[in-house]
Sequence to fold (397 residues):
Amino acid sequence: MEELEEKFIRKIETISMDFMRGTMQEINWSARLIGIRGARGVGKTTLMLQYIKKNLPLDGSSLYVSLDNIWFAENKLTGLTDEFIKKGGKFLFLDEVHKYPNWSQELKNIYDDYPDLHIVFTGSSLLEILNARADLSRRAVMYTMQGLSYREYLNLTLNLNFPVVSLEEILKDHVTIAGEVNKTVKPLQHFNNYLKSGYYPFFVEEASLYHQRLEEVINLILEIELPLLRKVDIAYAARLKQLLQIIAQSAPFMPNISKLSDRIKINRNTLISYLYFLQEAHLTKNYIKIAKGITRLQKPDKVYLENTNLQFAFAAENTDKGNLRETFFINQVGKANEVEYIEEGDFKINNTWVFEIGGSGKKNEQIKHLKNSYRVLDNLEYGSGNKIPLWMFGFLY
Fold:
């Protein structure tokens, strides 16, 4: 256990506190069992270490460990926890829990056996907390972490402190909000950089290697996480990457399952399941016309990549501008709102507001007869009336 404690202290000493994600304020840290799901690279580890450094004493009462550490090849989590408690432990932070066999059963036992212990754990977007042997759904408070919003990207890169703006505030007062932002920064000046390489926080480490690093993240999801957590045949990894490239080059992708199945040589029903798995892994977003979610047996009507950076990773020379705009909008708005794909307009939010996404010259003809309808337009610093700049929806979280 001593070597794990030493590694924890070294990590805490080197972690930067200059910028913290908005997720830090969203989490109820007083809960006894907290789970944080998210795609690789969105900053889950950094978030936990920053919370410890900011809020907890380094007196032995707190411990951070990653469950992919080789120490766990010969040692059990329950044994570590017992020793930790006997030495005065109160706060246990567990990273990458999906890498540890039988993690959910041991975590359930730890939660039940040590009622004074607070536990925070992180894992893949594919993490399941509901199963027959160890149902954590009644015990754990779960959060999902996305990549950086455009607001967070500006705050991080320019050392600014823009606050979160609600969707209702944008719809009601976007002209005033745009004026306040433009006093500090020209939002369009940095927007394309964000769309290309600003979603995953590791861009600050070595910008020139960003897309290489992103490709490594994608490969780990396709070749390790999907086979491990969804039993996807690893032989299909290359075909799934081909599918993601097709989605990236589309405007947007409206799948013909039969043709696609023939093209990438995957059985039709298997392909539909894999589209669902890709969404769970935060690589895609699937939409059915006016439908509450999507089941594993439904063919989606439209498929987007989860964020715009993925489009540049898969199709840097062939990114479709319209697809980029829509991908940005649903990624930023969809974090805390229900997004539906519709025939008239592009999207309906929270079953109330209709949005048409386009370039600055997009006319109002398609949606002018619809109640609560708005045009969301690219390349605008300011809007007017129901015409709102696209970049502004990046301030929602």
User: Anything to note?
Assistant: The chain has two domains: 1-144, 167-395. The longest helix spans residues 210-230. Residues 254 and 302 are 5 Å apart (CA to CA).
